[in-house]
Batch of 4 targets.
Target 1
Amino acid sequence: MSMTKKKDKNSDADMSKKNKEMENADPVKWFGMIISFIPSLLVKSGGAFLRFKRQAKKGGKIFKKELINQGLDRKTASELTEIYLKGSRLIQSMIKIRSISK
């Protein structure tokens, strides 16, 4: 029982020491740490965006093909596919949401 109380006291002391270190941290150091992550974050999010767009385009082709196979004419299938693909236009959707929120 005394061992656990001793460990708890040590862990509490360690936590308070870490909290004080965090409070005394240099803002320039934090800014530098955050800035260093931005390039990798941009590359990763850019790659995810391009994968999303490629998958949406592939899905649109499959969607159109299935509509035609089910008996719809090409013009109607193309129009429905265009509506289907509107949901994958993230940048346009974000701009529209931004303009609505103003």
Target 2
Amino acid sequence: MFYDTGCYGGVVLGELPEAVQQRLAGLPGEWLEYDAPTGMIVVRHIQPSAGPSLPTITGELVRMLAELPEAAQAAIPGGELFVHTEQSQLVRLKVEAGGALRIEWAHPDYEKARPQPWAGRGERLEIVEPRVQRLNGTVSFATPDAARAARELETLADSYEGLYPEGDLVVTPDASKPGVIVEVRDLNLDVLLMVERLRQLAAPGSLTGHIEVSSFATVYPEQHLRFVFRDGAPWVQRPVLWEDAGRRPAPAGSV
């Protein structure tokens, strides 16, 4: 899935007088509209393909909020709109309870993100398309045959037919144990294939380190992630994007 501009999310306005609802429903707009049955500002089903998305969406949102009388503004439950801009940025328009509007640019941060156990290939995973994945990181594991492990990993990297046949995979002996250290630098490889092969080669409970998955192409920031290995078990870690209390990641969405 390649990056495209767009918007998703919604803002709950709550109960409004009939006259206010009619004014909101009659406002012209390219991106946003008022949905009377739900009492929400929602994204139109057909979104424009040209024009600057962020200033247009922000202007439409502010215009709709301005139609509310003061008492209704104070009673707004709130909500969030997420905008993918032409500059490959993710921006959140957050309407807080009471009507305050905050505009925030996503700044991915792994340091405070909480990893989640990964169940394996059967688990649905929102991730960068394999043929454009860019892998970086270092892992180590114990193995009785370091030469075989290096050979199999190098063959996997060399034989993968991605769109960006570049990057490095370096396998060196681990002096602290009978095993290897694997470093990947801007490697174009399907991370699920690599994780599967690492788990096959590693002695039980010995796989440690991490592999970060980004992209050579421009894709949704929400799709970036990191595989973390703890005592042989794989965990998935999404970067935290916002400075909220709790520092939670944005929900994945499509446009």
Target 3
Amino acid sequence: MKKTKEPWQIVAARYCVENSEKGFNVLALKDYLKTKYDIQDRHFTQFIDEEIQLPSGRKFSRNAGLDNLWIPPLDLVSKITDYDELQEARRNSKSAFRLSLLAIAISVVSTAIGIVQIFMTQDVIVKNEILKAEIMNFSK
């Protein structure tokens, strides 16, 4: 298998959806996939059978038009839309996770600074009281 980000089935479905206006040829789809993936013919045939010719929920096989061009079934368009939305949701959740970690870190630092300031203030008050006591003792 060649290096790619998406599974070949998603790339194939995306090709079908992107070429839905003018229609797509199965051989052109196969050639396109062969440039990106090393897929077996039987897997490609299974994809065409299950996703294009006879998608789930259909009783009868779909046929290509007179010019041998296919348009993708709505279920395939939906799958690509869902896949893209899922990928976007994953990116957003990773970003939100990073931001939440940053917020927690800022909160910890702020709390630590607050605690240090409390101890420093108490130390100043104690030193001030000692100084007052020494001044009182010195003035007597």
Target 4
Amino acid sequence: MTAAWIAGALAAIAAAVALALAARIRARHRRFLAAPAPKPRPEDERILDQPQALYHGTRFADGVGLLATAWKEPCVSDVWCTAAALFIRREGQGAVLSIAHAEVTEAALHRRFAPIAGKDLPMLRLRWSRGGEQLQTDLSLRGGVASLEALRREIHLRQGNVAAQLAPLLERPPP
């Protein structure tokens, strides 16, 4: 009798923890999806245009995956960059993920295994924030490291706070 009561209490606690965790994950998604995002406009000049790029997915920076099916899975996508934002359009669905340059906190090159390609690929990892949430997006472009580096530079140069980011580096005495 006592063992059954204890087991029931533990099951109730586990269910309450699972419900609280699910509510927290839904709240994170709502904050991210409710925040304003740049819209692609046909009249904007495309600084970089890469059809058939590989999108490796977006997730929260702590590793929790997005629930939005359009952005959870890797796919072939069209990537373009304007003066205001980076846009990633998933092929087939037409869903567009937009990342304003001002939202980007880090743009770094790295190499890792890409299941969609079946091999290691150079990738651009963007860490960015929207709606108070930190996110991470990985993508690969045709042209490899040279194309990724060109995109990384464009993003950094258009962030608007380049001088503030360079100030600590310029204040240090040369080695």
